Amino acid sequence: MKAIILLLLLGQLPYNAVKPKIEIRHDSVFVTFRTANFSTDPNVFYGEVPYPETPRPFLLDYDRNVWSKNVDTLHSLYLRDIKPGKLYHYQVSYIDTVRKIECASREYFFRVIQDKDGHLKEGVVITDGPYLSIFSSTDYGIFFWTNHESKAWVEIDNKKISDNTVSRKHEIYLKDLNGGEKKYRVIVISGVDTFYTPTFKFHVKKNGADLKFLVAGDSRASWRYPAASYRINGVNFDILRLLMLNAYREGVDFVILLGDLISGVTQSREYGELQYRTYLNAMWPFDAFIPVLHVPGNHDMTAPYIKKGDIRIDPEPPNSAEDLWKEVFMLPENGPKAKDGKPPYKENVYYVDVGNAKIVVLNVDYNYTRGKGGKLSPALDKTQLEWLKKILKDNKKEHLFVCFHEPAYPLGPHIGSSLDARLNERRLIWNLLSRYSPDAVFVAHEHFYARMLTPGNIWQVITGRAGAPLYTTDVTKIPEDIKLFKFSKEFHYCLIETENNKSYLTTKTFTGDTLDSCKLR
Ligand SMILES: [Fe+2]
């Protein structure tokens, strides 16, 4: 009994998170949601999804809303004039009466259809996505969730490709694509109902081609933000969407997000999954046009965690934070094999060979354990280090970019608690990397921008302002072993361009102004 009560508590969402759903009663459409505390001023903002005729992304917008003065933990609001067959989207908001703060949900999608007797029922729809993944110059992936169990296909290059499963989550691999522009749409079928997305497009890079990609980090939310849209389910929804808008404008081939994607720090797997799906939703529809490589951070690796006294530990597989990560994302599975009983490395440690570059992603918060004095788990365990040695030895690409979350050479409040907490481990990885001269190492964790030259002549770029809160502390001392070239606390993103055997970095503010630029190689 005690265990059941505990499970119920762990399964509960916090006061600032809701999972609204569509209910059809007597041919009327309602949005219903339950809040953890008593809440008031429930609002539903909704409208038809404004898909443009040409394949291009568009920004979230609603032309209608319903509102009530109810004070309750359960709200159900009636949506007027819903036309059968059309796709609608909505978000809800409410005021929590305990914290006296406005909270908002992520964006949801629905469609109603008529059954053979003319009564309304929910039609099948993609609730999350489609989202684009990249595995190599020729191999891509598309993943999404549907509201009902469904069969699904991607229509591309006059072919229909399916994952041949009946499920709510689909991962469809697109292999051996030729270079150039691709147009695709997704078709899902559940029962007698069929749903078609509009057409999306993306560019496939030729093997050996020059690249342009965007790197940013730390898109998580903070309860300190006044705007509800800056802290939806652990994600800075507005800033992340703005980042992706910039990625689209810059015409990049792909985006790398360097961890602390979500606030994490939850004992509820359900809430962890809601946070990740909110993160993907915040980037939509841009992430249907641009593939994103996700890198794990310490906040991500505490979704979920287990508390043992003062220590937070990673649950054992299949309930670990790494398992949830793997379940949510569709990323390369070329990482090392984990020891029996340990969380998987698959999809949180990987590499992508694309164009003329190799991108290597490491998980420096693997099997994350935290005590009162800070992180207890190693930064780069032996398994990852051995794997990295082999990957670097076999590398045939002209350019090498290494990405992980916590800096090897931190600069701000995280001095002494990042990779520099274990100097022997840092020495091992830095010695190894210096032998292969990466163009740059990209890290985040510290909420600012800093480009520095570190021992071994390695560029380390800290980029951690894709939504995470601004630090009040300043950088007062610069470690002797680094040479700092540029520092900024503004929201920003890094653009990397490879050109034959040369590579360049341009760092821009969200207004498109250049903060920093340099030749990396
Ligand atoms: Fe972090």
Commentary on this structure:
Helix 2 packs parallel to helix 3 and helix 5 packs parallel to helix 6. The chain is 14% helix and 38% strand. It is mainly beta and 521 residues long. The site of fe (ii) ion (FE2) has 6 residues, from loops.
How much helicity do the residues have?
Answer: 10-25%
Most strands sheet: 7 strands, antiparallel
Structural category is: mainly beta
Rg, alpha carbons: 23 Å
Overall geometry: globular
The chain-level mean pLDDT equals 95
List the domain count as a whole number.
Answer: 3
| Ligands, deduplicated | fe (ii) ion
Ranges where pLDDT stays below 50 over 5 or more residues in a row are 1-10
Strand content: 35-45%
* Count of individual beta strands: 33
Identify the quaternary structure here: single chain
CATH class of the largest domain: Alpha Beta
CATH superfamily of the largest domain: Metallo-dependent phosphatases
Q: How many DSSP helices?
A: 6
Short description:
This protein is mainly β and 521 residues long. The chain contains 6 helices and 33 strands.
Task: Offer a few descriptive terms.
521 residues; disordered N terminus; Immunoglobulin-like; seven-stranded antiparallel sheet; binds fe (ii) ion; mainly beta; single chain; Purple Acid Phosphatase, chain A, domain 2
How would the blueprint of this fold be written?
Elements: H1 2-11, E1 21-25, E2 28-48, E3 64-67, E4 71-79, E5 88-96, E6 101-104, E7 108-110, E8 112-114, E9 120-122, E10 126-134, E11 140-156, E12 159-162, E13 167-174, E14 180-190, E15 193-196, E16 200-204, E17 212-216, H2 237-250, E18 254-257, H3 269-283, E19 292-294, E20 306-308, E21 311-313, H4 321-328, E22 350-354, E23 357-361, E24 370-371, E25 374-375, H5 382-393, E26 399-403, H6 423-436, E27 440-443, E28 449-454, E29 458-463, E30 483-488, E31 492-499, E32 502-509, E33 514-519
Parallel strand pairs: 17-18, 18-19, 23-26, 26-27, 27-29
Antiparallel strand pairs: 1-2, 2-3, 2-4, 2-5, 5-6, 5-7, 8-9, 10-11, 11-12, 11-13, 11-14, 14-15, 14-16, 17-31, 20-21, 22-23, 24-25, 28-29, 28-30, 31-32, 32-33
Helix pairs in contact: 2-3, 3-4, 5-6
The chain binds fe (ii) ion.
Fe (ii) ion binds at residues 260, 297-299, 405, 445.
